Task: inverse folding
């Protein structure tokens, strides 16, 4: 019976372990994380479809004619008026719209410029996705460190509470110390629950980018020892957002050129064939040429030119704003890296000192030279300092990776 019970316990433990192992997110490096998220990014698919559509429009603009052919036909006789003299006419024709001078090449330039703009939009989305992954991974890692610090504080508070409970039972501790120990343990338990909630939310936010649970490792990617220095001005020029804004300007300029080339509706040229029978004469066939030339009109051209001018002005404005925004962001990234480097050093020293202080206060409490409240405050300060040190370490890795991304390097 005891063997069966032992086997059941082992089996149950194995099932629980297997279930927990399946729920554990996969741990991958930052570079692989970007590739995984990029493969399932819906914006990438949308931009790629738009790029193929623009390429197809550019290819279609290479046609000989500005549009498809138009077929026309007529049939007339004298039966409707009651004469019945045999006057019958069959007439048919086909015509095609013609390109205006320079309109076909301008149309191809617009489509090609829009395709190039979508190429840069893909790079912008890749950059944006990399930053979102970096922020999400940092949030999840900081949440893990917060939960770790909460666990440490709860374990310490539980151990102290057990000691105080035993001392109170034998009459060596007062009820106030027992209340303090119990209160600190409950506060630590509450912080533990809040940290667990924060971690779960961070993991879910990161899971949205990958469509599966993933843990991104940032500790082995932030190595700038062999990175070539890039001038800030070059960083701005090479930023995908600035390039995309400039491509939009080029597309707007091409559209303005097309608007000027489309100063009137497209003329049409075709062939007509007449097959008719007249009273007292044999069948007669004739072939001729037809053409249609709509004349320019301000009522038509002014809105087209106004829309093209507005698009160009908007594109120029967005390029200036993009360059200013990137300049400001690069300055902030550099400042953040410097601040994170300094914080990494100072918090490490502070955490070590606070840990020594907590150990000293505990020793003083054990020999009766310090109160329990002072000891718990010192331990909480040590845990907070340890968490601040771990957070500073994560933020330094994030700042380093962000600087590498700004320099055009995919870590």
Result:
């Amino acid at each position: 019976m005891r063997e069966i019970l032992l086997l059941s316990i082992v089996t149950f433990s194995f099932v629980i372990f297997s279930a927990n192992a399946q729920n554990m997110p996969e741990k991958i490096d930052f570079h692989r994380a970007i590739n995984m998220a990029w493969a399932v990014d819906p914006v990438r698919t949308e931009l790629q479809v738009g790029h193929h559509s623009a390429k197809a429009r550019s290819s279609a603009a290479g046609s000989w004619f500005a549009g498809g052919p138009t077929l026309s036909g007529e049939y007339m006789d004298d039966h409707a008026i009651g004469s019945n003299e045999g006057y019958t006419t069959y007439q048919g024709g086909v015509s095609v719209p013609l390109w205006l001078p320079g309109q076909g090449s301008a149309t191809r330039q617009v489509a090609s410029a829009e395709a190039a703009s979508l190429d840069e939009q893909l790079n912008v989305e890749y950059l944006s996705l990399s930053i979102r992954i970096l922020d999400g991974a940092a949030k999840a890692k900081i949440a893990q460190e917060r939960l770790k610090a909460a666990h440490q504080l709860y374990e310490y508070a539980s151990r102290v509470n057990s000691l105080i409970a035993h001392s109170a039972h034998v009459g060596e501790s007062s009820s106030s110390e027992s209340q303090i120990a119990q209160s600190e343990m409950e506060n630590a338990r509450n912080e533990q629950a809040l940290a667990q909630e924060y971690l779960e939310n961070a993991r879910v936010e990161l899971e949205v980018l990958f469509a599966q649970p993933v843990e991104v490792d940032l500790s082995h990617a932030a190595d700038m020892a062999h990175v070539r220095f890039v001038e800030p001005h070059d960083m701005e020029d090479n930023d995908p957002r600035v390039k995309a804004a400039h491509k939009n300007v080029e597309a707007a300029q091409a559209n303005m050129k097309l608007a000027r080339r489309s100063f009137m509706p497209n003329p049409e040229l075709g062939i007509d064939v007449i097959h008719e029978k007249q009273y007292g004469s044999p069948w007669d066939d004739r072939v001729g040429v037809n053409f249609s030339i709509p004349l320019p009109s301000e009522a038509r051209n002014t809105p087209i030119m106004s829309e093209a001018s507005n698009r160009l002005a908007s594109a120029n404005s967005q390029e200036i704003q993009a360059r200013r925004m990137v300049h400001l962001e690069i300055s902030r990234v550099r400042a953040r890296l410097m601040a994170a480097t300094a914080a990494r050093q100072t918090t490490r020293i502070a955490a070590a000192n606070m840990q020594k202080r907590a150990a000293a206060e505990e020793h003083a409490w054990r020999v009766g030279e310090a109160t329990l409240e002072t000891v718990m405050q010192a331990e909480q300060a040590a845990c907070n300092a340890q968490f601040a040190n771990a957070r500073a370490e994560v933020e330094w890795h994030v700042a380093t990776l962000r600087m590498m991304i700004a320099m055009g390097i995919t870590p």
